[in-house]
Automatic annotation (TrEMBL), chain A:
Species lineage: Bacteria, Bacillati, Actinomycetota, Actinomycetes, Streptosporangiales
Domain of life of the native organism: Bacteria
Sequence intervals crossing the membrane: 48-71, 83-105, 126-150, 156-176, 196-214, 257-279, 327-345, 351-371, 402-423, 435-455, 476-497, 503-521
Cell division recorded as keyword: no
Name of protein: ABC-2 type transport system permease protein
Keywords on record: Membrane, Transmembrane, Transmembrane helix
Automatic annotation (TrEMBL), chain B:
Record GO terms (molecular function): ATP binding; ATP hydrolysis activity
GO biological process entries: response to antibiotic
Membrane topology type: Peripheral membrane protein
Gene source species: Thermocatellispora tengchongensis
Lineage: Bacteria, Bacillati, Actinomycetota, Actinomycetes, Streptosporangiales
SUPFAM superfamilies on file: P-loop containing nucleoside triphosphate hydrolases
Stated name of the protein: ABC-2 type transport system ATP-binding protein
Length: 544, 256
């Protein structure tokens, strides 16, 4: 219990004096460093990964610091001030959202892990604060924001107040981020919460593409006006005030900083309350009563009884129930829509490309999900491995996975082909568009069957937006998806190229061609994969 | 008595570390066999290799007289496995998991449904049959795992720590089912470090320590006049000093 005194609970031995604030801070910084060190120990790939992170973080810190400092030489001071406001707001948003998406990367973030230690709430708070400011990225963001002290002020007062403002802004970032994760920690520990978050992540990643897209589509270029309007609103948010205080450097600035300090204190108090509640709240994850009745036999019921039907049924259920499956599908569709929009822009290649391109691209994106077919099965793949006694069994397994993907993808691609054909003003091109897309899907599934067995990797159960593979397997994942992408791209050319160039009757050949490549891919994949079954099992069962 | 499982010089290393260093495991047909050993003795590695889930670096494995790595189809159709760590298809319901497992093995759909229903009843899982496995408790997961392993009526059953984390009620159910199963002449091999349980259930024991079999045979022979627990401690060479007088003087309520 956090609030209990050591002296009360101990009968034997002397009562220890609780640690002071500074000692607690140092203790937790050391704990965090130990955790980081322990995480990379004995694993070269992780060591390299961490060294890479350090280098990137240092680079980003220096670059960001210099860029913000360079605001000093912007001739229009109003623009500099506006930029400062926007940057500070973005930092607060980043601090709020990123730890949520990456929840689980850091043991110091979960108060439940510390619940049994006799720490007072205040100590716990200092400790968690210390834990969350220790690390390459928090330090990098502090360094970057410090750049504003050089870039923004108009005088000595601005510099002096600027230091205070940056410290307060940093504290605000940390406290808000802690407050959000702590109040959501109960939800985040439950299965439903994590499922929801995993799916929500797709939207965040896609939303991050929005500005890019808007600029691509050419929102009539007056960026200055957009910036000014945005900053005029953001200036009254707490991070906006911090940035404004640095620029202003006068009495208004002092008032703003006092407000900011009070706000940080208030949020910290809320955080304590949330922390107290989180420590004694029961773990809700075991109470989820999800009763699902099996309705009929679905599409797979039409298949002849046997292993194929079993795999198809299971894969279709997984596409629906497993958050990683849903994320995969939503990401594939989202990326396709985004890219098609970019194609459709003024300077994109027009004609047949605009009509047929999106569906073919969609097929490639959907097919890429199959380039690590066994990844989502992960540790449970043993159940298949103890049954498969021949390459033939593995081939059936792969065929079932392909069939399941096709069952979802074909209607989706058909719709995509029709929509883009209509939008391009050539409804008839929907036919070659759809046929080409089916062919491309077949080709990607075929190459995917081979990469699935040659470059299998673990898809982490706890999704996070920054990596798609278990620690240390990033390289394999990259090789797998990149290899599948290139191989598919090359194999697709014989049918896709003539169709895109306008010889649309050739699309009739796309479907048999795609089916043939898919068949050959399964055959090769099964022969290679059967011999490697124990290795595949090991590769997809890494702790993540 | 013919051997159900026999290994010769089974060997596996991970990097520098030899996990299994020449194991000669013998389990007679129809026995309820316990594979015991301290943590890290190589029990899980041995079972994984015998069931074809991990490739051995050397040695011979025969199940029911058939070489595991030479005729995997035959062997895999005759063994049932419950691996450690409860790795199951989390997003299927218990009933769906059994259906999937049975159909994958080529058992007709209706037969699978019939057997699944009976297994769910015996395992006392009917109420939770339509819940997702991800929401199951440890005991329920072990039970559904065992049901999946029994579905195709295997001749030999391999269970890795089947009773770990299982409540007494569920454990009792598991034991009942397994007793019935071995009574018909089938073989069960399970790993455990709960000696009381092994002593109560098994008629055959293999003791592993540091990647090797240090004793093996009928329970009575291995145990001798001692309790199995004492025999085990003697065999694996655990120190008998209880640590008195070597520090820890501050521990306990009399010291203040």
């Amino acid at each position: 219990m956090a609030g209990l005194d050591l002296g009360v609970t101990r009968q034997a031995g002397q009562a220890f004096t609780p640690l002071g604030a500074a000692e607690t801070f140092r203790l937790f910084v050391r704990l965090k460093l130990r955790l980081v060190a322990g995480n990379v120990r004995g694993d070269t790939a992780r060591k390299l990964g961490f060294a890479f992170t350090l280098i990137v973080a240092a680079g980003v810190a220096v670059l960001g610091f210099v860029l913000l400092a360079l605001l000093r030489i912007v001739p229009d001071r109003a623009v500099a001030a506006d930029l400062g406001v926007v940057v500070f707001t973005v930092f607060l948003l980043g601090w709020t959202v990123v730890p949520l998406l990456a929840f689980g990367l850091d043991d110091t973030l979960d108060p439940a892990k510390l619940a049994l230690l006799p720490l007072r709430t205040r100590q716990l708070m200092i400790g968690m604060f210390a834990g969350s400011v220790t690390g390459p990225w928090p330090l990098a963001s502090l360094v970057i924001m410090a750049g504003a002290v050089i870039g923004l002020p108009g005088g000595v007062g601005g510099v002096l107040l600027g230091v205070v403002a940056v410290v307060l802004q940093f504290a605000l970032c940390v406290v808000v981020s802690r407050l959000v994760t702590t109040s959501l920690s109960g939800v985040l520990r439950s299965r439903r919460g994590r499922d929801l978050l995993a799916v929500g992540m797709v939207f965040v990643v896609l939303a991050a593409q929005l500005p890019n897209l808007l600029v691509n589509r050419g929102v009539d270029g007056d960026l200055g006006a957009v910036l000014h309007d945005t900053a005029a609103v953001l200036r009254w948010t707490p991070p906006g005030m911090a940035a404004h205080a640095i620029t202003d450097g006068g009495l208004v600035a002092v008032a703003e900083l006092v407000f900011l300090a009070l706000l940080v204190a208030g949020l910290a108090w809320l955080w304590i309350v949330a922390l107290r509640a989180a420590l004694v709240r029961p773990d809700a994850s075991t109470q989820a009563a999800t009763v699902r009745r099996t309705r009929g036999r679905g599409l797979a019921g039409l298949l002849p009884d046997g292993p194929l039907a079993a795999v198809v049924t299971k894969e279709l259920k997984y596409a629906r129930r497993e958050p990683r499956g849903r994320v995969g599908w939503m990401a594939a569709v989202g990326v396709t829509v985004l890219l098609s929009f970019s194609f459709g822009g003024d300077d994109g290649p027009g004609g047949a490309f605009a009509a047929i391109g999106p569906a073919a691209l969609g097929a490639l994106m959907v097919g890429m999900q199959a380039c690590n077919s066994f990844g989502i099965d992960g540790r449970s793949l043993w159940m298949n491995a103890v049954v498969h006694g021949s390459p033939r069994a593995l081939r059936t397994d792969l065929a079932g996975r392909h069939l399941a993907v096709a069952l979802i993808a074909v209607p989706l691609l058909t719709a995509l082909a029709v929509i883009s054909a209509v939008l391009a003003g050539d409804p008839l091109s929907a036919v070659p568009g759809a046929l080409t897309a089916y062919g491309v899907l077949g080709v990607t599934l075929g190459t995917g069957a081979v990469t699935s067995v040659v470059f299998p990797y673990t898809v982490p159960e706890r999704m996070n937006a920054f990596t798609g593979a278990a620690p240390g397997q990033g390289g394999i994942a990259f090789a797998g998806s990149f290899g599948a992408m290139i191989a598919s791209g090359v194999l697709v050319l014989p049918v896709a190229l003539p169709v895109l160039l306008g010889i649309s009757w050739l699309s009739v050949l796309a479907v048999p061609y795609g089916a043939a490549v898919a068949w050959a891919g399964r055959r090769l994949g099964a022969d290679l994969g059967y011999a490697r079954l124990p290795d595949i099992l090991e590769a997809v069962s890494k702790p993540s | 008595m013919a051997d159900s499982v026999r290994t010769q010089g089974l060997f596996k290393r991970f990097g520098q570390q030899v996990a299994v260093g020449g194991v000669d495991l013998v389990v007679p047909k129809g026995s309820f066999a316990g594979l015991v050993g301290p943590n890290g003795a190589g029990k899980t590695t041995t079972l994984s290799m015998i069931t074809g889930l991990l490739r051995p670096d050397g040695g011979l494995i025969e199940v029911e007289g058939v070489n595991v790595w030479r005729d995997p189809v035959l062997v895999k159709s005759r063994i049932g496995v419950l691996p450690e760590g409860l790795r199951l298809f989390e997003r299927l319901s218990g009933r769906e998991l059994l259906a999937y497992n049975g159909q994958l093995r080529g058992i007709p759909r209706d037969e699978v449904a019939r057997r699944a229903e009976e297994l769910l009843t015996v395992m006392d899982l009917l109420d939770s049959a339509d819940k997702l496995v991800v929401d199951y408790s440890t005991g329920m997961r072990k039970k559904i795992g065992l049901a999946a392993a029994l579905l195709h009526n295997p001749a030999v059953l391999f269970l890795d720590e089947p009773f770990e984390g299982v409540d007494p009620v569920s454990a009792n159910t598991l034991v009942e089912v397994l007793r019935r199963y071995t009574a018909s002449g089938s073989t069960v091999i399970f790993s455990s470090h709960v000696m009381d349980l092994v002593e109560r259930l098994c008629d055959w024991v293999s003791v592993m320590s540091r990647g090797q079999i240090v004793a093996q045979g009928p329970l009575a022979e291995v145990r001798g006049e001692r309790s199995l627990n004492q025999a085990f401690l003697d065999l694996v060479g655990a120190g008998r000093d209880s640590g008195e007088g070597e520090g820890l003087a501050w521990l306990g309520s009399t010291s203040a």
